[in-house]
Each structure stands twice: as structure tokens, then as C-alpha cells.
Amino acid sequence: MRTAIWLVLAALFLAGPARAEAPQTFKDCDVCPEMVVVPAGEFIMGTDGGDKREAPAHKVTLKRSYALSKTEITFDHWEACRIDGGCKRDPDDHKWGKKGMPVINIDYRDAEDYAAWLSRITGATYRLPNEAEWEYAAKAGTTTKYWWGDEIGEGNANCRKCGTQWSGKGSAPVASFEPNPFGLYDMNGNVWEWVADCWNPNHDGAFSDGRTRTTGNCKVRIIRGGSWYYFPKLSRAAYRFKNDVRVFSYNIGFRILKELE
Fold first, then answer.
1. pLDDT reported for residue 20
2. Please, what is the Cα angle at 173 between 178 and 138, to 5 degrees?
3. Which CATH architecture has domain 23-259?
């Protein structure tokens, strides 16, 4: 018996550590963004004892899986929508180029137009993620400030003083850094991402089931993830900020969610 146990342990040792399953990805059409399936689960949203906008920390349970675009929506994705008449704005690339770059200078309504276009051409339901869905996906099962740890380090994300060639200068091509454990790129830094909720100054009254908050100041919506322009603490998974729905900027973009059956 003892010999058999040692043989099993030796086999496990030689096999190495268990590997996480590869993310499940798909595309609904040739010009559609590649999507990553985010599994159902629960997490602690927000923080206590720090930024008051992130309080109170509270448990959220997401009972259904959903899909989130693997990267921020790019100029190429946007142009397909514009050519087809679903998106009106021709956004400025700030002379940084468009190939492989996150689309910028997009306001909240523009992002909604893109989601509506995707829904129309695919017959599925695409929309902006809400705060809970976004933060859960950004944390990807981790409990640290960033998915890789509590310190920003160097070369992990594109934000000011983050030690990259783009830091404090401009957006980077999407997927320039390692993906998080869910297989999602650039959830921290690069460009801010519009999310669906109306602005509320903190998490008082937030839902434990991760529903979108449709009360509060709906002329102002939430942005998440920080950007190349801002310091690392704004790129934490829990950090939340706001902007008027009419605002467009060279450091704001978005990613898209697909509801799954």
C-alpha cells in the first residue's frame, strides 16, 4: 500500500502543478469581437477603509455566466459598425494609429450604439457590462488590488508610472500585456471603460445579485479600469469614477458583454 501511495505522489510530482482550464472563447461573426466566457460565481465587491466611493464592501453573487470581449473594442471593430451604419461617430485616433488599438473618443451613447448594432446583426443580446459584472471579471477570482498582486510593479499594465513605453503617453495596442486568469486583457489601465450603471456616490443600496443600478444620476455614468494617463491606484479593480454621458476623450473606450442563455 505504501509503495502504491508513493507511486501516485511521484506521478503527480512529475506531472507538475495543475493547470487552469483554457478560457472558452468565440466570435459570433467575422467582424465581431472575440468573446471570453466568464463563469458564474461570487466575490467581494468594493473596499472598506479606503476610497469612500468603493464602500461598503459587499458580497455579490452572479448566478449566470456571461461573455465579455477579450480586449477593449478596437478601431477595427468600430469601423465595421460605422461602415454598416450602426455607429455614427468617426472617432479621432489622436495620431496614435488605429490598427489593433482600442477605440477612443467614444461617449456613452456611442458605446450603446455599438452594442445595439452587434445585437441586431447577431440576433443575440449585447450590451455594456455593469459595475458588478465588470469588477468580477477584472478580479477574476483574485482578492488583491490588481489580479497579479497588491503592487502595480512594472510592465503589468499601461498606466502612468507603470514602467511601459506607453505610460503617461498614450494607449497601447490591445493585448500588449498578460491576460488575467479569466483570459481578459487590459482590465487594468490602457483606457477607461464605460459601464452601464447610473452614478451613485458609493455602494450603499447596491444589489447583492449584481443587477445594474438604474437609479441615481443617469446623466452621469461610471467608468472603470483607469488609463494610460492616470496613476496606478486608479487602475485597481475596485476603483470607480464617473463621467457625463456626453463626454468623449482620448483615454476613454469600452468593452462589450454578451448575455448567455
1. 54
2. 45
3. Alpha-Beta Complex (3.90)
